[in-house]
Design brief:
alpha+beta
């Protein structure tokens, strides 16, 4: 099981008002859809899954938001692809091991993109960054 393709299809960033005081930032990832597709490697065609996701960072109270929508291509053996797709079609669920791999890839790419976008429009970082504290003793 491997993620072999990843791209963003929508990037929406908005700063509504200057940030002041305490700001709560919540991040969320949602799998919007999973569809079967074919992936060609050289001359070999392999069954794959096209997974549509949405990543949101919301800044409260009403400071701004970041929305990233994209898709990734997931390949595995044909039986596993069928199992994952059938579970999605019937119950809108993804098995834990597959979901873990997908979410790790999505979060890795989206957190970096959201960090850059937040900097560009002067929003606080959507993920905690390390800080240095000076000992005054």
């Amino acid at each position: 099981m491997t993620v072999v393709g990843f791209n963003f299809t929508k990037i929406n960033v908005e700063r509504k008002q200057p940030s002041k005081g305490k700001i709560n930032i919540s991040n969320n990832v949602l799998i919007k859809d999973i569809a079967e597709s074919n992936f060609t490697i050289g001359q070999d065609e392999q069954k794959s899954l096209n997974i549509i996701f949405q990543f949101n960072s919301t800044y409260e109270p009403n400071v701004g938001s970041i929305e990233l929508v994209g898709e990734l291509i997931y390949i595995d053996d044909i039986q596993r692809i069928n199992e994952v797709h059938n579970l999605w079609v019937e119950h809108k669920k993804v098995e834990k091991d597959v979901m873990t791999e997908i979410l790790n890839v999505v979060l890795n790419r989206c957190n970096i993109e959201a960090l850059i976008l937040a900097r560009d429009i002067n929003l606080p970082s959507p993920i905690p960054l390390p800080k240095i504290k000076v000992d005054t003793n």
